[in-house]
Design brief:
Largest sheet: 13 strands, antiparallel
Strand content: 35-45%
Shape: elongated
Pfam families: F5_F8_type_C, Laminin_G_2
Main location: other
Family: Belongs to the neurexin family.
Number of strands: 83
Distance between the termini: 71 Å
Helix content: under 10%
Number of helices: 13
Structural class: mainly beta
GO cellular component, one term: paranodal junction
Oligomer: single chain
Keywords: Cell adhesion, Cell junction, Disulfide bond, EGF-like domain, Membrane, Phosphoprotein, Repeat, Signal, Transmembrane, Transmembrane helix
Amino acid sequence: MEIHCDVYAKSSVLCCFNNLCVILSIHVSEKCDEALATSLPHSAFTSSSVFTSGYAPGYAKLNRRGGAGGWSPLDSDHYQWLQVDLGIRKQVTAIATQGRYSSSDWTTRYRLLYSDTGRNWKPYHQDGNIWAFTGNSNTESVVRHDLQHAIVARYLRIIPLDWSEEGRIGLRIEIYGCPYWADVINFDGQGVISYRFKMKKMKILKDVIALKFKTAESEGVILHGEGQQGDYITLELRRGRLLLQINLGTDLHSSLIIRLPVLTSGSLLDDHHWHSVVIERYRRNVNFTLDQHTQHFRTNGEFDHLDLDYELTFGGMPYSGKPISGGRRNFKGCMESINYNGDNITDLARRKKLDTSSFRNLTFSCVDSHTFPVFFNATSFLQLSGRREHNMVSVGFQFRTWNPNGLLLFSSLADGMLEIALNDGKVTAHINVTQQKNSRVDIASGSGLNDGEWHDVRFLAKENFAMLTIDGDEASNAGFFNKNEMQNEIASPFQRSFQGCMQLIQVDDQLADLTAVEQGRLGAFENVSLDMCAIIDRCMPNHCEHGGRCTQTWNSFSCSCDGTGYTGATCHTSVYEQSCEAYKHLGRSSDLYWIDPDGSGSLGPFKVICNMTERRTVLQLNYSATMEQISAITSSAEHCEQHVAYSCRMSRLLNTPDGTPYTWWVGRANEKHFYWGGSAPGIQKCACGIERNCTDPKYHCNCDADQKQWREDSGLLVYKDHLPVSQVAVGDTNRPGSEAKLTVGPLRCQGDRSYWNAASFNTPSSYLHFSTFQGETSADISFYFKTSAPYGVFLENLGNTDFIRLELKSPTVVSFSFDVGNGPVELNVHSPTPLNDDQWHRVSAERNVKEAILQLDQQYREVRPAPEQGHTRLELYSQLYVGAAGGQRGFLGCIRSLKMNGVTLDLEERAKVTPGVKPGCSGHCTSFGMYCRNGGKCVEKYNGYSCDCSGTAYDGPFCTKGEFSPQFTVTFHTNGLDSKSVVQSLPTETNLTREDLAFSFSTSSAPSILLYISSRTQDYMAVVLRQNGTLQLRYNLGGLREPFTVDLDQRNLANGQPHSVNITRVERDIYVQVKEDIIHSLSVPHVFSEEHDSNLPGENIDPVLIEKYNTPGFVGCLSRVQFNSIAPLKAALRTQVPAPVSHQGKLVESNCGASPLTIPPMSAATDPWHLDGGIIAVVIFTILCTLVFLIRYMFRHKGTYHTNEAKGRESSESADTAIIGTDPNFTETIDESKKEWFI
């Protein structure tokens, strides 16, 4: 691993390794924690007012008892403040408060403002809010707060918000910090500083640029450099946001047009407060940090060096640069601590080591802004007086806000009123003159003015016209006035109040003296913060994840997640499942699905093909996914494979194992691999070389024989850490006659280890531990649990005071509790049924800056909004404990598929080395056995379960294929018996006194034979559709002169709708159910043998039946056919496994019978297939007696059947092999007879 380190500033070093650069501190200094206020003179303390001289602000020093023991104002209200002048700018890291000594006066809550000049105050922000500090609850205890981020200021102002109920505002304070010094340069918007390189052309591999700036302008270039090859770097302000552009150049011969990235950071940066910027670049990797918020990105292009010519300029561009310089304004404001790759630019400029000739007047101090901002909240107004006896109204101001609506100005005129408001982001002026008819005038201008930027408003009304101008754009004028006297008072009533900031307020062409307003000498105000704009951009940094669009009002923000693939208050939670395995257990069938392998992680969703019908659930994806997405799939999959094939004619593939290969392929890690499909890593052979059956035994690949005939080497690549194939280099195709064809198949993966990753907790004190959970602003946790215990802690992670915990509090309550610094929060979800039922239950919890959510089994849910003001960061330090920890009630049972912020914790691996915890969990069938439908049997597996469908007419992972779409059906478009499926033998021992037949059909044609069972004798059983569409059952058994015939349904069933038929014969009793109708009971005559025989396989078909009902033949759809244990359609269509089934004509699998049938199960009272134990015993005894009698007197034909059907399943390598990968084994020994089916 190559590491580069360079000193770039007095106390820091830049280290770059693995394409990542960081700044490391290299000095050891004293902690920045000096007491700054104690040594100050009394004159350094000022206040809004003083109760008496003994309560002067100079006595407000921590632990001092001078005067009255602290500061108290004349009135205890929200307009009071205490101010400290530190003398020079210093770095402040903490603040501490006390109440007034030996009194009932203290401050319980306060805000902190800071400033360089004693004007244009900035409130201290924390966690995205104007922070309110917790104060004191008595007079003597000291409450100290370490600032989350240090501030640099000369003046500090404390604003009491709440105070003692028994007394008044009382305060003693201490400020902690250390000295601060920096070179400052004032930029006038004209001059620039040119930093010239030692060489005319510089090829720069790494850069570190650091500076601080403050400005009242929203536009301006901060730094710029460019080169003749098209390389450049530009940092500029645009609309109050910071934009960084870096171009490292492209190949001049390349035809590709590369879109250069433009990184945007911050907003409201024209607030005339200091902002810190650090740009770190190593090759194409860039870290861009603004005010402690860092973004990472990678530049486009093909090169790693930044080629600059001659110089780098700060403050603007000295001339029109080649790519982007046109129309850019230079920076106007102040910069300090400018460092470029270790050089202190401000110090060099002070010592005149740099070119500053473009400055008209270069100064090394910051020029103050002359604006006086005013901050309005929901209950604020400011009242100013205009000139009386004046026939003109002229007002102007600048405003900024996030709200689309609000009243900006209201004025009572001598004969009417004037109202200027913000409506849906537009400024409207409404004038109403009461003394004239038709004197109402409305003027509107602008759009989208609630964007947080400063906008200029000018309104003029004089004589017979009015004019509204927004940002210099004149809207319109309208005649309405006579020369009447207009008296105006400018104010803002409470209704539709404005929330935002104003500055440069002018009334009748006079700039309002807001200092006099603050001192009470002019106008009036209420709940207005003067000389401060406390606007906050709640969308910066953007808490909307995964590309969610952030919109905001003054008090809150919201996220639009449309089109992102994520949902929730912050677009944190993926709407897609993480694997095909998860879709499978939602009952989904094979299809194209979106999956999100890391859930709420950084990887986006992508499409894959999920094949649910194979031995395991198989995922197939193409190369539209990124390599990171593919890696997430292969890492969690049980097995992955990719088919490769090389067809050749005189084109060698790998050469000998000792020779240089002609062809190689590149995998996931960009490494070359010299083995081919069917072989393994490190073995330079093809599949035929492994199996020793190559065309030429001297070579290990067919193609390496270099023959003129077409040959092929193909096989599966199965080492998943190398997959997928990203490149293939073919090297032997340039000789005369050489030809080759390369085929690379899709990547196919099966299984999801994370879905079944489980651990069993066997003792109350057993637990697993993992590294600290990182979920500061957003966290999601999901898992499945199964237990018989009434309570237990699922997981817990602790901090100093913060924590997060999930637990089963009682048999019916799951709890999610946490504390981010605002006090403990607990969400409880109640289940109507006990959760300690040894069944799997799913728990998901999410916590973000907007809300907390707890959900149980995807249906029971509780949501708790986050407080508007307060801490938002979850700071944890201990290890994450899964199970019992810290004396908590331990969990007994199983936990599986534990995911935290999209990352699956490997419970099984950790459980292998942890006492009291075992990997895996048994008993999956207790929870999931219900998914095995239609008689399928649930088979327990180590990491899940599977359904054994071998004894049913159904297939698929849940034995539902044949019941729901897609189904095993056959479509017939034939005449006569040209298409028929023949079952030549029975797979099970047959009871000749009973048949169970079930099938479904749909057709619009009649007559036809639906099903026919025959033998070499004249015995048969048939179900036919008559000419009128009614259903008929026909039996021809031994002893009957004519076939026994019964009409099953008098309705026309040839109506194109799906119909199901169940027929059961037990001796002479026949039970029939058609569709969802009740069961019909029939009895056949006594003259036939109840043990009818189909002795030998044959095709003796009743010619009368064929002539009458099988012309022109069945045209329609058959599905779900099962006779006793035989499923002929399933056997015929499962061609991959040999079965004793044959068919004539074209047999096609179709989805024509895909309409779901809604036949309710028969009740035990009426269902002949569901009998209680007593009835079964009576029936068996009756049957035995009847059999003895019939054998002696009426028996004509005999036959028994034996089978070894179960042997195939017993020899299968796993339950999956027996259930999904193979078909029933139809091999059996035949004693006398076989039946044949014609369908």
